[in-house]
């Protein structure tokens, strides 16, 4: 089968519903992390679904609404990823680290929002400034998720059965992969490479699905393996 004939964009849009369905099933027995993760997936499905509906039907009067909705979602995504990843860090100054990243990313998104609402720029059109703002987010989360994974490897005895290993791995894969795709776009190399974001999305959702499948609830043994973590 010729991969170019596959509807990758549509598959990427629909793939989120698999981990979303599992997160919904785990919602009642899950902890705060799982419930916020469900909200993150739900908002992501709404953004992707609305975007597909608007652009496939050329509903131009809804373009601005979708852009604002997507902007708010991306801001929530950035702060949620920081909160989630730093929750797995064992460091005396983890609260200060979390606040520092919150301030950094809030400033970046404030600049994007100011440009968007003042009509000086389109925050979703490739440009040097957009690449800088998005790169700050993607690089920050890549850094945090990589350290979270390293600390999991040190503390969790059965890493491949630990649900959050797969979920944080999905976050790392998405942010790290998207960072280099955006980097190549910003310097004008193969603009068609933008389509690779859909493949990165699909793989990310596979990681999320694996982690949610392994998740057994608040009292699962895997969480107790993170023995030195303090809240």
UniProtKB/TrEMBL annotation:
Ranges in a coiled coil: none
Entry's transmembrane regions: 6-25, 37-56, 68-89, 101-120, 132-150, 162-181, 193-215
Keywords: Membrane, Transmembrane, Transmembrane helix
Domain of life the protein comes from: Bacteria
Protein name, as recorded: YhhN-like protein
Species: Algoriphagus yeomjeoni
